[in-house]
Amino acid sequence: MRLQEWTIEEQDLLIQFMTTNSWPYHDSSQPGRELLEKSIEEGGYASDDVKTFWIENSENEKVGIVKVYDLQEDVPLFDLRIADDFRGYGYGSRALKKLTQYVFELPEHKIRIEGHTRHDNAAMRKAFERAGFVKEAHLRQAWFLPKENTYYDAVTYGMTREDYEAGTTTPVHWEDRERYVKSIPGFKEQLQSERLHIRAPELNDSMDVWGAVSHSMPTLRKWTGWAQKEITIESTEEYVRQSVSEFIGRKSLNFHLFLKETGEFIGCAGFHRIDWNIRKFEVEYWLDTKFEGEGYMTEAIKELVKFAFTDLSATRVEFLCDENHSKGRAVAKRTSFELEGILRKNAPSANGQDLRNTCVYAIVT
């Protein structure tokens, strides 16, 4: 992948790129031709203070653009956009690494580079972090979207020259969050078991998730509250987006499971209701019903439990399920969870019509 500088001769190509793709997290989600022409004419894409680059992949396809501006200042800013068809393939983080190299190799000896995005733009935030940027600010209701007449929170990420040259990432230690920052360890986002590839969720997983959920609904509805509603492509995309966002924020760690042999998506498993201070994690999972009976979920949970105690320094991993959920209880037993007790009539059943007994399983250090 490379950055190729944009030239004025490519004006029509740039306008086509900007008007045929969607930009849901930008001020103008669908910029018009006249506005773009005016911006180009005024030096908004190429001047002494601005440079624009095509992001090209190894097949010479133009997968995105990145514009760096305030080049006359010590701290340049940038705007990164990936085309609809190429999102979810890691181009954003790779482009940021290339752009960072470009900025810090300028003869003016730039101090730092920074970028801003909406707090709910999970894909962009993940790109920042994978490229070595550090979250440095969270501004409440600072991002106004005229079309919706709504304010969103905004976040700022930056990289200093010192971190770039040393190849390090130095987190900001907020005085009132120092304990929280120290309590969350760094860890890998991909695991391997004998038959499974287990990784963090990505936005382009939505169709796989929707397909698996759709034909597994009769079984899922028996045991899960979220399956009581109709599952649409749109609601699935929102679910995956939320999973990505919560994974980045370490609020929950929901992993997606794929068969090594075929690459097929088979389900989800991960940790929810996390208490980082005492290192307590609750396991939740669901499996595409066409893959039941092969021991895949048992294999995944064993790997995740090992990961929790080895990489996350867990003191306790829990699994809670309906007393009548025989398959869930079997997975708990096969993965060395100990039944600590049964809470009688402590929670609504999945359909909300009855009260269930809840089995509490756990593994502790």
Secondary-structure topology with pairs:
Elements lengths: L1 E4 L5 H10 L12 H9 L8 E7 L5 E8 L7 E6 L8 H14 L7 E7 L3 H9 L3 E12 L4 E11 H6 L11 H6 L6 E3 L3 E4 L6 H9 L2 H7 L9 H16 L4 E7 L5 E11 L4 E8 L8 H16 L4 E7 L3 H9 L3 E11 L6 E10 L1
Parallel strand pairs: 12-13
Antiparallel strand pairs: 1-2, 2-3, 3-4, 5-7, 6-7, 8-9, 9-10, 10-11, 11-12, 13-15, 14-15
Helix pairs in contact: 1-2, 3-4, 4-9, 7-9
Protein name: Acetyltransferase
InterPro entries: Acyl_CoA_acyltransferase, GNAT_dom, Ribosomal_N-acetyltransferase
Pfam families: Acetyltransf_3
Describe this structure in words.
By secondary structure, the protein is of the alpha+beta class. The chain folds into 2 domains: about 170 residues, Aminopeptidase; about 180 residues, 3-Layer(aba) Sandwich (Aminopeptidase), CATH 3.40.630.30. It is about 30% helix and about 30% strand. It has 11 helices and 15 strands. Strands 8-9-10-11-12-13-15-14 form an 8-stranded mixed beta sheet, sandwiched between helices. A 4-stranded antiparallel beta sheet has the order 1-2-3-4, with helices on one face. A 3-stranded antiparallel beta sheet has the order 5-7-6. Helix 1 crosses helix 2, helix 3 packs across helix 4 and helix 4 packs parallel to helix 9. It is elongated. The model has no long low-confidence stretch (mean pLDDT about 90).
